[in-house]
Design brief:
By secondary structure, the chain is α/β, with parallel strands linked by helices. The protein is 34% helix and 15% strand. The chain has 14 helices and 12 strands. Strands 6-7-8-9-10-11-12 form a 7-stranded parallel sheet. Helix 8 links the parallel strand 7 and strand 8. Helix 10 runs parallel beside helix 11.
């Protein structure tokens, strides 16, 4: 059935409403819905669901308006000419587009990917064609910060390595928990040495794939790192993370992190705020002070790609890049399926304009090995 609606001849959307009303797992909310929007909730999770309907010729415009936030859509266009729309929203209302790329081109802008549509200066950068090529999944060459059955992981060191190798990666950084994390079966000194002997054997067998000897060393209450100096010297790299005494004010948490960052054994800072999304708020920190310290001491910051963490938050990625700090997309994988979480870290990094050049685990195995070796020489 066809009906005249808003000055256009369009098919009535009622059959789509009926399909959604009958779909299992969805609860319709009549008061929030309209002829061109079905609103409801997913019954299992309570998550809100909105399905918008449009005619085919209006699909791109509707998709575009629903993607960018209000600030992105209403930022004044630097190059708007006389009589032309002055915002992207006005361009979307003025004519139908066959692609989002065409809309940005008409507005005189470099194409802005959906991840960047936040109204945080991307319009001005696009007007000058200065938005860089962003990191892609295919740029990643290795995976760092992963756990095995030596601590609290579900798969053996061999399984973690061969799975990653067979997925096309060049290296694995194994970072089981240190001894202070007794609740996670943290490794005492003898078990560290046992694991490192197994790594040597596996590296001889799996070459050119390589396992780097790492550890997730607990940052203790006073900001020092777990283990004595001699044992820390045995690792290729160290991810320093806080797991205990999480109820800190900003001054204490920041000072604890700053001391750990200044430790010459710290290669990388793990999940800086310790947050668990929808479960636990992170401890407050002075982000600028922490990032500045990482720049000073050449410490990499991880974007912990576990979807419960996504820590470092994307809002601080651009500041870290401006200070010359490298970031690493780390899945914090405790089983082989956890490697897939790197996808979320890539997306978070892209929102902060992360590039391949500034992503540590986009380096080749030889480049990563050289970087770790150079830091160890300084010790």
């Amino acid at each position: 059935m066809w009906r005249r609606w808003k000055s256009s001849w369009l098919p009535r959307p009622l059959p789509i409403h009926a399909l959604l009303n009958a779909a299992p797992g969805l609860q319709h909310e009549v008061r929030r819905s309209g002829p061109w929007a079905w609103c409801g909730t997913a019954t299992d999770s309570g998550v809100g669901v909105t399905v918008r309907m449009t005619a085919p010729e209006g699909f791109i415009n509707q998709l575009f308006v629903a993607t960018g936030n209000e600030a992105h859509l209403t930022t004044a266009l630097p190059q708007a000419g006389p009589g032309q729309p002055s915002t992207l929203r006005q361009w979307a209302k003025r004519e139908h587009f066959t692609s989002e790329e065409a809309l940005y081109e008409k507005a005189g802008l470099q194409y802005i990917v959906p991840e960047l549509r936040e109204g945080l200066g991307e319009i001005e950068l696009a007007a000058e064609h200065k938005i860089p090529i962003l990191l892609q999944d295919s740029d990643l060459r290795g995976s760092l910060h992963n756990h095995s059955t030596y601590s609290d992981g579900s798969h053996s060191l061999r399984q973690m390595a061969t799975f990653l190798r067979d997925a096309g990666y060049e290296y694995l950084g194994i970072c089981d928990h240190s001894q202070a994390a007794h609740y996670a079966n943290g490794l005492g000194p003898e078990r560290v040495r046992q694991q490192q002997r197994e790594i040597d054997e596996l590296n001889a067998e799996l070459a050119p794939f390589r396992i780097f000897k790492g550890i997730e060393a607990d940052i203790l209450g006073d900001g020092s790192l777990d283990y004595d100096e001699a044992l820390r010297d045995s690792f290729d790299f160290i991810v320093a993370s806080i797991h205990s005494n999480l109820k800190m004010d900003e001054a204490r948490a920041t000072e604890r992190l700053l001391r750990a960052i200044a430790n010459p054994h710290t290669t990388m800072l793990g999940h800086p705020t310790g947050r668990l999304l929808l479960r636990r708020a992170g401890y407050p920190i002075d982000f600028k002070a922490v990032i500045d310290a990482c720049a000073q001491h050449q410490v990499i910051i991880e974007i912990n790609a576990n979807p419960w963490r996504l820590d470092l938050d994307w809002r601080w990625v651009r500041y870290a890049l401006a200070q010359g700090v490298q970031l690493s997309i780390n899945p914090d994988a405790h089983h082989t399926s956890g490697y897939a979480d790197m996808r979320y870290g890539v997306l978070a990094g892209r929102k902060g304009m992360l590039t391949k050049k500034m992503t540590f685990n986009a380096k080749s195995v030889d480049e990563a090995a050289a970087y770790f070796a150079a830091r160890k020489v300084k010790l």
